[in-house]
Amino acid sequence: MSDVYIPGIRSRFSSDQLIEDLMTIERIPRDRVQTNIENLQTQRSYWNEVGRRITSLRDSARNLFSFQNPFNERTASSSDTSAITASATREASEQSFSFTVKQTAAADRFLSQPLNENTRIDAGNYVFTVNNDEIAINFRGGTLREFVDIINNRGRGKIGASLIAVQSGTRSLLLESKLTGTENRLGFSADTIELAKRIGMMEQAVDSYKNIIINEGSVRKSGQNASNINVGDGELQVAPLSTAVIPINIFIGQDSPIVLRLETKTKVELDNIINVPEPPTGPVVPAGSVSYGGITIENEPSSSPLPDLTPPSPPRRNDNMGVLLLSFSDGTSSRLPLITDSDQFVSRQFNLAEIARGRTIVSLNVENSNTHREVSIGKIEILDPTSLSGGLKPVNAVSTARDAIITMEGIEITRSTNAIDDLIPGVTLNVKGVSDKPVNLKIEGNTEAIKDAIISFVGNYNRLLAEINVLTSSRSSSMPDLPQNQQTVRGDTRLIDELTYLTANEIEAMRERLGAFSGDITLNTLKNNLMRTISAPYPTSLERDLSLLAQIGISTNASGNTGYDVSRLRGYLEINEKTLDAALENRIPAIKELFAYDSTGDLLANTGVAYNVDALISPFVQTGGIISLKTSTIDSRISQDQSRITNLDRQLASKEQELRLQFARMESAYAQMESLSNSLNNFSQQNQNNR
Asked: What is the pLDDT of residues 644-670, one digit of tens each?
C-alpha cells in the first residue's frame, strides 16, 4: 500500500527519511572518533587491570621483607591446651618452657538462698568494696530486678549482679567481683552486711585469723652464720648457711580452708660472702735467760720446724630456692614450693590442708643453705581465705578470689590474673586449668603465616604473568592446529584454557582482552625481566646451598612431570607443597634471606627474590610511573577525540538544520507549483465548458 500524503502532516517526498539517510553518511567521521574513544577507554581499563595486578604482586613481595614480614611472626603451642595456652608477639624469642598449673585465678562469686521472685529490697546505702575501690549505691527500694540493674549500672566494671532461676517462682541473687586475685576480694559494708545475711548469702564467721609475731624471743637461730641472723621491724633476715625456726603451733584439719600467707625477698651478693679463716701462726716459744751466782744463761731460739699449712678452700657456691619448710608434731617436715629472687617483698600463699594432712604444724623453718643469698621473711599470717572483712563468711560461694599459681622450670609464680604478660617478653600466658603433669610450651616461628605469604606471592606473580600473556598474545587470522570452534582472529585461546582457576566471568573477560596489546614492548620486557628475576640465584649467609626458589619447592615444574608442556614455557610457577613444608620446618632463617638479604651490613635489604621483584615492578605503579603515563596518554587522546566530537556534533547539527531548511523550501516550491498547476487546469476546464 502506497503512503498517503496528508498536507501539513506528512512530507510528500519523505524528507525526514532522506535527511536521516544523508546525516548517517555525514556522521561517519563522528562515529569513527566515538569508536576510537571506546577503544581507548577499553585500553585504559586493561592498563588499570595490569596496574592492579602489579600492585598486588608488589604488596605481596614487600610483605616478605618489610618490617611486618611473617618471618618475625611467632606462634605458641601448648602440649595441654586445657591447662595453659599462650599468644606470642613478634618480640618473643623462639624457645621452650615447662609449666605446671597449680591453681587458676578466680574472683569472688557469692550466691544467695532461693528467694521469692517478688522479694523486695529495702531502701538503704549499699556499699561494696573490691580491693581499695569502694562502690556505694543509694537504693530507694524496689524489686530484685531493679536492685540488680542499679548494681550493674554503677558497678564500674568492678562488681556485677544477676538473677538465677534455681526453682520455679524463685530467684537467687548472684553477686560477683569482676576482677580475679586475692587482692580483689569482694567486701560488704553499711546496709549490704545485713542484706547479705538476710538473703542467706553470708553468715557470721568464726575468727580463724592468726598473725605470727616475729621477734628475737620467738625465733630460734642455728647454723654456721647464726650470729648474722637479724630480727627487726617485723622482718627476719636469714644469713647464708644458717637456719631460723619460727613457732606456729596450730592444728590443721583435713578439709580446712586455712592458708599460710607470708612475704619473702632475697639479697644476692656478687661475691662469696663466707669468710675463710687465716691459717694459724704456730706455737710461740719465749726467748729468756736465767742468772745464778753472777752467771747468766741465755735461752736458744726454738728450732722446732713447723709444716706448711694450706688454708681451707672456700665453700662451693650453692643455689637453693627451697628454703621454707613446715615441721609437724610427729617429727616429720614438708618442704614448701621454691621461692624466687626479688629485692622487694613478694606475697606467697600455701594451702595448709594439702600440706599438713590433719597434723599440727609446730614451726616454719627457714633453712638457708645458700652461700651467697640472704633470705628475708616479712609478714606471716594464717587465715581462712573465704572469710571477708567484717567477720562474714559466704554460705554459697560459687568461687572464692584466689591468685593463679604456676611453676615455670620449677620456680613458683603467683599472679592475680589468668592472663600473665609480664613473665616472658612478648608472650601472654593464658591459664586455663590445673595440670597434673608438666605442660610444654613452645614459642616458634609462624610457619603457616610464612607459607601463606609465599603462596600469595606466587599466586599474584602467576596472575600478573597470565594477564600479560593474554594481552600480548600474537594476533592471527586463524589457528590451523586448533579445532574450528577454538579458532580466533585475536589470539590463541589455549592461553585462557590453561588458567583453570578462573571463574566463568573472568574467562569471558580474558577472552575480550586476548591479544589487545599484541607485541607491546613494555609488557613483554616486564614479563621477561620477571621470569629472569624469579629464576636467578641469590646469596644467603646461613646456608650456602640455598640460593634458588626451586630448592624450596617453587619452580615452573615443581611437580616434576616429564614430557613437553607448552604451558610451562609461559613462566608460571608451581609449588611443591611437601618440599616447601620441609624447608619451612628447618630452614626459615635461610628462606627469609632468599627473599630479602642484607649483603652490606647496613640493616637494609639490598638483594633477594622479593626485594628484586619489588625493585623491578615499583616503577610501573608508583606515582607518575609507567602505568600512570600510559593511562594519562590515553586520557589525553580521549580528551582530544571528545573535543573533535564536540566540533563534529556542532557541524552535524548545522548540517541537519541546513538540510531541513532546503527540503522545506523544496516542499514549499513544489506546493506552489502544484497549486498553480491546479489553477491552470481549472481555468482551462472552465473555458472548455463555456464553449
From this structure: 988 988 988 888 888 888 888 887 888
3-state helix, strand, coil in the chain (%, to 5): 35, 25, 40
- Amino acid at the residue 30: R
Spatial CA neighbour of 76 closest among 585, 420, 428 = 428
Q: 9-45 burial string, b = 16+ CB within 10 Å, else e?
A: eebeeebeeebeeeeeeebeebeebbeebeebeebbe
Residues in the chain: 691
Q: What is the dihedral of CA 359, 362, 364, 369, to 10 degrees?
A: -100
CA distance 118 to 145: 9
Residue type at 235 in one-letter notation? E
Which cell goes with 56?
598486588
Share of the chain above pLDDT 70, in %: 88
Cα–Cα distance for residue pair 114/164, rounded to 1 Å = 9
Q: Which amino acid is at 642?
A: Q
Query: Is there a contact between 496 and 511 (Cβ–Cβ < 8 Å)?
Result: yes
Calpha distance 349→379 (Å, rounded)? 12
pLDDT score of 294 more than 90: no
The dihedral over CA atoms of 116, 119, 124, 127, expressed in degrees to the nearest 10, equals 30
Considering only residues 679 and 553, tell me which one the structure prediction assigns the higher pLDDT: 553
pLDDT category at 211 given cuts 50, 70, 90 is confident
Separation of alpha carbons 181 and 431, rounded Å: 13
Find how far residue 111's CA is from the centre of its chain: 38
Would the pLDDT of 12 be above 80? Answer: no
Strand partners, 290: 297
For the chain, what percent of residues have pLDDT higher than 90?
42
User: Quick check: helix, strand or coil at residue 124?
Assistant: strand
pLDDT of 477 reads: 40
Band (104; pLDDT cuts 50, 70, 90): very high
Say what the pLDDT of residue 457 is: 96
Q: Amino acid letter at 184?
A: N
Dihedral over Cα of 341, 344, 347, 352: its sign: positive
Which of 386, 408, 399 has the alpha carbon at shortest distance from 180? 399
Helical segments of 310-389, H only: 352-356
Average pLDDT, the chain: 85
161, 169 contact by CB (below 8 A): no
Give the whole-angstrom CA distance, residue 603 versus residue 601: 5
Q: Global pTM?
A: 0.67
According to DSSP, the residues that pair with 414 across neighbouring strands are: 405
pLDDT at 485 over 70: no
Distance CA 684, CA 286 (A): 191
Pairing of strands 360-368, 202-204: unpaired
Task: Give the per-residue pLDDT at 85.
Answer: 95
Is residue 345's pLDDT more than 80? yes
Q: What is the pLDDT of residues 487-516, one digit of tens each?
A: 444 567 888 888 888 889 988 988 988 989
Query: Would you state the cell numbers that stand for residue 580, as one nine-digit string?
Result: 616447601
Question: Which DSSP letter does residue 388 get?
Answer: B
Rg (CA), the chain: 48
Alpha helices per DSSP H over 63-199: 144-154, 191-198
Burial environment of residue 389 by CB neighbours within 10 A (0 to 12, 13 to 18, 19 or more): exposed
**Per-residue DSSP letter, 656:** H
